[in-house]
Amino acid sequence: MSVNNLELKYKIVPTSIAVIPECEPIYSELTTFIDIDDEADGPFIVIRQELDGGTQKIRFDIDEWPLIQKAINRMMRNCEKLKW
Predict the structure, then answer these.
(1) Would you place residue 1 in the very low, low, confident or very high pLDDT band (cuts 50, 70, 90)?
(2) Residues near 1 by Cβ (< 8 Å), separated by ≥ 6?
(3) Per-residue model confidence (pLDDT) at position 51
(4) Is residue 38, in this structure, part of any structural domain at all?
């Protein structure tokens, strides 16, 4: 295919991963999607779940992810300490 006499080349870009309990279908409310999105200002990550007929989303810029990940890992260790 060409546009304005330029030959277009295509690539495959995976933009979504679904995390699903093994016993659940992909459309389960327990499914968590991790997506790459871009609104013309650069890519960012969206974590979303479809719950009670609506979509809940959390968005992370690439630069903020290392600190978010560090904070989540810290809180996960704190949760482990609180288990009975």
Answers:
(1) low
(2) 7, 8
(3) 86
(4) yes
The number of domains in the chain is 1
For the chain, the 3-state helix, strand and coil shares in percent, each to the nearest 5, are 25, 40, 35
Domain of 72, CATH number, reads 3.10.450
Tell me whether residue 7 is in a domain: no
Euclidean distance between CA atoms 61 and 69, whole angstroms: 12
The answer to whether residue 49 sits within a structural domain is yes
Residue type, 23: C
The pTM of this model reads 0.76
The residue among 12, 10, 69, 61 whose CA lies nearest residue 39 is 61
Alpha-carbon distance 57 to 61, whole Å?
13
